[in-house]
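Hi support team,

I submitted a single chain yesterday and got back a structure, but I'm not sure I'm reading the C-alpha cell output correctly. Could someone confirm the output below corresponds to the sequence I sent? I've pasted both exactly as they appear in my results page.

Thanks,
R.
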Amino acid sequence: MLKLFTASEAQQTILRRQRGGDSTYPQSFLDGLAQHFGPGTTPEGTVRAILDSIRTDGDEALRKWSAELDRVYLDSLSIPVYRFEEAYRGIPDDLRQALKDSAARIRSFHERQPLPSWTTGEMGGTVGQRFTPVQRVGVYVPGGTAPLPSSLLMSVIPAQVAGVSEIVVCTPPEPDESILAAAYLCGVDTVFQIGGAQAIGAMAYGTESIPAVDKIVGAGGLFVTLAKQRVYGIVGLDGLAGPTETMVIADASANPAWVAADLLAQAEHDPLASAILLTPDATLAAAVAAEVERQLANLSRRETIRFALEHRSGVVLTEDMDTAVMLANDYGAEHLCLAVEDPQSLSEQLYNAGGIFLGEFSFEVLGDYVAGPSHVMPTGGTARFASPLNVLDFVKLTSIVALDPDTCRHLAPTAARIADAEGLSAHAAAARIRLQDSTGEKI
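Hi R., thanks for writing in. Yes, this is the structure output for that exact sequence:
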C-alpha cells in the first residue's frame, strides 16, 4: 500500500509540483456536478455560477444552494447567540477543557508576535510605519466529513490578538456542537450556517444578512479554494489552500510505529492528502510500511487513508540525509517533521516549510490542536513564499511621512529630476513649486 520510491522516481511522481494547479478531475466527480449543473460543467464553472447568483440574488441564492447542495432548508442563515453557550455547556467536560487549553496556548503564542509600529526623526521630519487591524474579517470553518472546532480557534484567535473589531464566521449548515462551543469560548457572536463556495461569495459581496468583509481566511475544500481565487481583489485572502500534506524526514533512530502513526494521521484528512517519508535507512522504511498496514486496520477512516496513501504518498529511500534535505526544500511541505537524532542541526538546513516539527515529541498532531501556532499553513509548495496564518495576516502597514520644510526643499529637486526622466511633468511641477516663494521666485 505505501509504495517505495527512489529519489529520482519520487521527483517524477509524488514530489512533483504542478505549477498552475492540476485541473484534471475524476469522472465520477464530474458526473456528480453534471447532475446539479448540467453536462460538461467544470468545478470552475460551478463556482462561477454560484458566485454570480449570490452577487445578484443574495440571501435567496444562499438558501437555494443550501437546499440543493447541502440538502438543508434554512429559515435563518445565522445561528442564535444563545446556542453557542448551550453548546459550550453541553459538550463533555473533557472536551470543554481541551478546547480551553488549546485556546490558551494559541493566544499565548500569538500575543508574542511583535507588531512594530515606529517613527524616526533621523531622515528629516518624521517617517515611519503604523500597523492597524483589518476592520472586518470573515473566517471559514470547514464542516464536511469531520467537524473542525480547532480551525475556528486557529483562525479567530490570531485575528482577536491583532485587534480585529468584527469577526464573521461561516461554516456548513447544522454545525457540530463543538464548533459552536469553540465560538462561545472565543467570544464570537456572529456565525452563519453557510458552507462551500456560497459562503465565500456571501462574505466577499455581502448579502441582506451577511456583511461584506475586508479579508477572508480559513481553509476549505476545492470549491472554497476556487471561490477564494475568484473573489481575490474584492477581498483580501490568507492564501489558497490545497490538499493537506506532511513530510517526515527520519533516520535509523526513529520509532517506526510513531512515524507510521504520523503518516496515517495526515492521510486521514482527505483522499487527496499527501503523507511522505524521506529516509536513507532501508530497514526503517520497511518497518514503517509494515506498521502502516498493522495500524490501519484499527482506524475509523481507513478507506480515506488507504486512498491517500496509495495515490499521493509513499516512502522515498534517499542516498543520504543531504538528499533528503534537498528534496524537502524543493517540495516545500505544509508540515515537515524531523524524526532524527539531531533535529535542531537538521532544521538549520531547511527553509521551505509551513511548520517544522523538531523531534518525535513535537509531532504534527500537536501542531494541529494545541502547540500554539495556527494550523492554517501554506500548501501546494506555497511555503516557498507564504507563511502560516498569524497576527500579521490581520493587520495593515501604513507608511507615515511628515517631512519638515528644509527636508522638503532638499528632496524636491531629486524628485523633480526623476519625474522628468519618467516624462511626468505634473509630478515635476508639484515638486518644483515647493522651491518657489509666493511671487514665483526660486527660494
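A quick pointer for reading it: The domain at 82-238 is CATH 3.40.50.1980 (Rossmann fold). Let us know if anything else looks off.

Best,
Support desk
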